[in-house]
Amino acid sequence: MDELELARRCAEAMWADDKAAQALGIRVEVTAPGAVRATMEVTAAMINGHDVCHGGYLFTLADTAFAFACNAYGRVSLAAAASIDFLRPAKLGDRLTAEAAERHRGRRAGIYEVTVIDQDDAVIALFHGRSHTTDRPLLPSAEQGRGAAGSPAI
Asked: Which residues in the chain show pLDDT less than 70?
């Protein structure tokens, strides 16, 4: 299986257990190994006392894109550090997209940048994450070695 197919299989395995992303309506698309697009609509439940999207939801969207991007290679990767800069508010009904891009990937550590934009391509937030990769396989060894006939794309 090629790297893109492996990344998609890893995303499918992660998605099956990601109750937080599912509950928030976050959709994930693997665009390349180490690159992910995640989308979410700002709902009434996400609005804070200032009538804008709570920053925790923006962080969660960006962190989700980061997680799926750094777990694209068949081994479990965890966040070691992350930060976010909020540049403008997101509002009720906004359709947000988080684009995660791998900037460095070593044997144990990776650096990822995530840009969160709204439906008008305005930059809402910038996220920076550092991952730690373990020796634990993300997929069963038999699945990592076979093709993906019939599996849905993520």
From this structure: 142-154
Tokens of 25: 């309506």
Spatial contact of 112 and 132, defined as CB atoms under 8 Å apart = no
pTM here is: 0.91
* Tokens found for residue 154: 């993520």
Question: What CA–CA distance (Å, rounded) separates 118 from 48?
Answer: 18
Residues 6+ apart with CB under 8 A from 21: 15, 28, 38, 64
pLDDT tens digit string along 111-137?
999 999 999 999 999 999 999 999 999
SS3 content of the chain, % helix, strand, coil (to 5): 30, 40, 30
| Chain centroid to CA 135 | 21
Pairing of strands 75-86, 109-117: unpaired
The token duo for 102 is 């791998």
